[in-house]
Amino acid sequence: MRRIERLNPLAVLAAAAIGVAIGLVVQFALSSRGNPPLVPPLSLPATLVLISAILLGFGIRLRRNVAKRAGAVNPFHAVRLLAAARAGQLVGAALGGFGGGLALSLLGRSVPAPTATWLPMVLALAGGVVLVAAAMIAERLCRVPPGESGGEEAGPEGEPGPADQAAYRQR
Asked: Is residue 47 domain-resident?
């Protein structure tokens, strides 16, 4: 069995950087035309937090089923949750970065923006951070605990698992 690696943190940072860049470009394009800044709806951070709660709920449910049934869990459910957790990390980073880019463009103005303008941007950034954190936790909950994988996976930090150590001692 192949060991499943965590999502590369550089991919999450790249998604956040792309989100920031898009947010900045959108705001600069709007301001160059004399339009008001784009203010994301308050439903965006609320939706990001709701998705975070759903991911955590499914992750905790999966972990409890693994502990209760000693590993007898539908692997397709675990893989789907893993895919959703990885997608949540990327989407949370991109949308949080977008909100951060929108807010970042307001810092260079000579007249400060009203709270009704910058607060939804900061909330979108915070919602993205919450989604990334929840998705990382859900991804961690999808991992097979040591000793339940049949000895084919490595232990923590790439160390050999118990079955691998026993096979080494027999040589």
From this structure: yes
* Structural domains of the chain, count: 1
Contact 82, 139 (CB under 8 A): yes
- pTM comes to 0.81
For 123, half-sphere exposure in the C-beta direction (CA atoms, 13 angstrom radius) is 17
Sole residue written with tokens 């118990």: 162
Can you give the residue range of the structural domain that contains 112?
9-145
Q: What is the pLDDT along the chain (171 residues), one digit of tens a residue?
A: 456 678 899 999 999 999 999 999 999 999 999 999 999 999 999 999 999 999 999 999 999 888 887 667 788 988 999 999 999 999 999 999 999 999 999 988 888 899 999 999 999 999 999 999 999 999 999 886 666 554 444 444 444 444 444 444 444
Q: Is residue 17 part of a domain?
A: yes
